[in-house]
DNA sequence: AACCGATCCTACTTGCTCGGTAGGCATTGT
DNA sequence: ACAATGCCTACCGAGCAAGTAGGATCGGTT
């Protein structure tokens, strides 16, 4: 799983919007709060707008606001909007790659891995993430003995 | 999760080696069986050798062989050898990124997602994958209703 | 000693993506 | 009119991904 700067910034901006929901917040304010490069963040927010995650308000006192309640927005939705599909194999969807011979069952593994990812990222929403009250299954994953150890 | 061509090829080559374990197989034979570009595969196998997943035999009738039994080799080991860590956020390990303000709990989510990935990729080995007898938890993940549907 | 099939090493190419910057136009409340 | 904001296009430098090319080296066979 590779979360790009775009993905990271997008989630952080969305969290900042969730914290002030349903207020409208300017790019500058979001950039300041999360210490993000303003111009780059602009491009990221444009992605979120095209994905209908946020709505833009132009003109003086403009900015962005979530199009729906924080708890209605899954983190996966945000990541997909800016980084594309959660899982890809050689640039293709896991279910689209096919294998021959001894690799026959490989796509089943890719699909399972994607499914595991979805079970985390599609199930956590902005409200939970903002308050830190993650679903118990997710909390358990992060609490396993060496979950915080690199491998 | 982004599996590159390197990662895909590496797992397929390893599976082909597992199928013939403990025989020595040439790059050419591996490339033929899985239809991979030979020269590129050479570079991938070099990675696996440096990670001590395979051993190279030089000279006539040379090739590669697994350094241990197929069931002792996790898929994650192969992916890490050629693609680096399973999960990265902005080029860093999930446990290394820190956040302020409304994004405070974000690293917990990244760690949970990585943990979920590990629970699949670190638990499946070449023997299971070659025979298709995946662990029941993994099989269940791939069998959930819309696991094979794109989102 | 010669040969042949194999790995190994270095270099190169081509195209794409990533992260970010710059400038200016369009919109809107005051 | 003005100022603050979003919107759009273009650009840049660095790095990476996916190969390709050519040859050096090794080692068993003849």
Secondary-structure map with pairings?
Two copies of one chain form a homodimer.
Chain A: E1 2-3, H1 5-19, H2 27-34, H3 38-50, E2 54-57, E3 63-66, H4 75-83, E4 88-89, H5 106-121, H6 126-131, H7 136-143
Antiparallel strand pairs in A: 2-3
Helix pairs in contact in A: 1-2, 1-3, 1-4, 2-3
Chain A binds a DNA duplex (30 and 30 nucleotides) through helix 3.
Report on the structure:
- The structure is a homodimer of 151-residue chains.
- The first copy, chain A, has one domain (5-143): Arc Repressor Mutant, subunit A.
- Helix content of chain A is 50%, strand content 8%.
- Chain A has helices spanning 5-19, 27-34, 38-50, 75-83, 106-121, 126-131, 136-143, and strands spanning 2-3, 54-57, 63-66, 88-89.
- Chain A has a two-stranded antiparallel sheet with strand order 2-3.
- In chain A, strand 2 (54-57) and strand 3 form a beta hairpin.
- In chain A, helix 1 (5-19) crosses helix 3.
- The two termini of chain A are 14 Å apart.
- The model of chain A has no long low-confidence stretch (mean pLDDT 97).
- The interface between A and B is large, with 67 and 67 residues.
- The structure holds a DNA duplex (30 and 30 nucleotides).
Summarize the structure.
In chain A, 50% of the residues lie in helices and 8% in strands. Chain A is built from seven helices and four strands.
């Amino acid at each position: 799983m590779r979360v790009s700067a775009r993905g990271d910034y997008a989630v952080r901006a969305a969290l900042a919007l969730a914290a002030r929901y349903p207020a409208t917040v300017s790019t500058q304010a979001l950039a300041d709060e999360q210490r993000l490069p303003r111009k780059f963040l602009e491009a990221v927010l444009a992605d979120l707008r095209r994905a209908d995650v946020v709505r833009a308000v132009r003109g003086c006192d403009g900015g962005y606001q979530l199009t729906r309640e924080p708890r209605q927005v899954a983190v996966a939705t945000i990541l997909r909007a800016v980084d594309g599909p959660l899982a890809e194999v050689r640039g293709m969807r896991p279910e689209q790659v096919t294998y021959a011979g001894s690799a026959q069952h490989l796509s089943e593994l890719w699909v399972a891995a994607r499914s595991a990812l979805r079970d985390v990222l599609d199930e956590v929403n902005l409200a939970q993430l903002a308050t830190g009250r993650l679903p118990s299954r997710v909390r358990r994953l992060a609490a396993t003995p060496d979950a915080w150890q690199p491998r």
